[in-house]
Design goal:
Layout (H helix, E strand, L loop, with lengths): L1 E8 L1 H5 L3 H10 L3 E5 L6 H7 L9 H8 L5 E8 L1 H9 L12 H5 L8 E3 L3 H11 L7
Antiparallel strand pairs: 1-3, 1-4, 2-3
Length: about 140
């Protein structure tokens, strides 16, 4: 059964010109791109998106970073989409990520790690709704 997940190509990867290569990796892994757009978000919008981390010490740095340049939020679909995307992304720390993963190839650090992906169905539902209206998800 098909599942949807949410992902963002982050500002560091966009700035370095890696968005196309990351999208190619995602498609090569069998994901269907249901919807994608290029947007810039404010710090307040980043704070709303990452509200679950508001008490964490890295919250300010994270929201500053995510509002620092254009991003590509997207909705992806395939069987086991959430788990498969997390495996494709690799460990948050690119130094610990497996060879061939997106973060191993394109991330510079734990903070600038190229890509975000939902970690659960509930998270995916919230994140998809945060960036996409229903009519954008046909």
């Amino acid at each position: 059964m098909s599942q949807r997940t949410f992902s963002i190509i982050k500002p560091d990867a966009v700035k370095k010109g890696h968005a196309g290569a990351i999208l190619a990796e995602i498609e090569k892994a069998g994901f269907k791109i249901v919807s994608i757009k290029k947007v810039s978000i404010s710090k307040a919008q980043a704070e709303g998106f990452y509200y679950v981390h508001s008490e964490r010490p890295f919250f300010g740095e994270l929201t500053e970073f995510m509002s620092s340049g254009p991003i590509f939020p997207m909705v992806l679909e395939k069987e086991n989409a959430i788990a498969d995307l997390r495996k494709l992304m690799g460990a948050t720390d690119p130094a610990k990520a497996e060879e061939g993963t997106i973060r191993k190839q394109f991330a510079a650090s734990i903070g600038e790690n190229a890509i975000h992906g939902s970690d659960a169905e509930e998270t995916a539902a919230f994140e998809i709704g945060y960036f996409f209206a229903g009519y954008e998800l046909k």
